[in-house]
Amino acid sequence: MMSNEILSQSEIDALLSALSTGEMNAEELKKKEEEQKVKVYDFKRALRFSKDQIRSLTRIHENFARLLTTYFSAQLRTFIQISVASVDQIPYEEFIRSIPKMTILNIFEIQPLEGRVLMELNPNIAYAMMDRVLGGMGVSMNKIENLTEIEKRIISNVIEKSLENYREAWSTILEIEPTMLEFEINTQFLQMVSPNETVVVISLNTQVGETSGMINLCIPHVVLEPIISKLSVHYWMQSSRKEPNPLETKLLQSKIKKAEVPIVAELGKTDITVQDFLELQIGDMIRLEQSVSEPLTIKVNNVPKFFGQPGKLNDRMAVQILDMIKRGDMEDEF
């Protein structure tokens, strides 16, 4: 790809002068340009997601972080704050080396996508959550190697129930069904994909009461490969502009037609002082500003919509609509 840099006229003149005087050889210039095209590429750190796709994954998990904040706040009844810290694509083995050897590992699948997704919780966060579930103050502790079966089950249940929020976070792209598969604490017994497989790691800053730590989500490329085309701005824009379902539109119209709204035929109005109002007696007459020859204003939900005239229909009071009020007709009244 040629450079898009624009040269000034003086730079062009200097370049032509150097070529004509022999100070610069055209072949050398071409060779130098070709050398500049060469870039170092590390196949162990293959970038298989574009920046556009990473941004889409970031948006999805920012929504997930907001949903988790609300969910855990309600479940644990303490201060919870969760936000996306980073979204990176790295080899799987690099991710495993970056987390503690003994930690909280939750493996789940997201049907209809194939493969497994890993959610890693910092033990401090997991213990604080467990303490709140058991009625404590949310105090953290360090006993990762001595977790009882009951404690493992409590932590696993808290995470499993939170996966409904993951389904909702993905709903704009794909309807998924997250299902918990395994609970593990030792990374040595965890091998989801090959060591060099590219994975997306979403790190969530998490605050539970006075305890802070990280929640990491690890999604292998092979899981996202079937929907990789949907992780683009073009797809998001198309989705936002999609036509409404005709059946849903028809149902909505029928519901709106059955909605009840108040209609008032205003005979007229006037202004009086508070003193006159307090002195009103039975039989007193209040003169309205509305002339009998002028049409009445008919209001729908307190908004002027029609002109009409009073009358009777089958011995009952009625109002006949004469015309619709167009925008600007009532400006003098406001």
UniProtKB/TrEMBL annotation:
Domain Flagellar motor switch protein FliN-like C-terminal residues, every copy: 255-325
UniProt keyword terms in alphabetical order: Bacterial flagellum, Cell membrane, Cell projection, Chemotaxis, Cilium, Flagellar rotation, Flagellum, Membrane
Annotated membrane topology: Peripheral membrane protein
UniProt signal peptide: none
The UniProt record lists the keyword Secreted: no
InterPro entries: CheC-like_sf, Flag_FliM, FliN-like_C, SpoA-like_sf
Superkingdom of source: Bacteria
Subcellular location: Bacterial flagellum basal body; Cell membrane
Main location: other
SUPFAM superfamilies registered for this protein in UniProt: CheC-like, Surface presentation of antigens (SPOA)
UniProt xrefs under NCBIfam families: fliM_switch
Family indicated by similarity: Belongs to the FliM family.
Protein name, UniProt field: Flagellar motor switch protein FliM
Organism for this UniProt entry: Aeribacillus alveayuensis
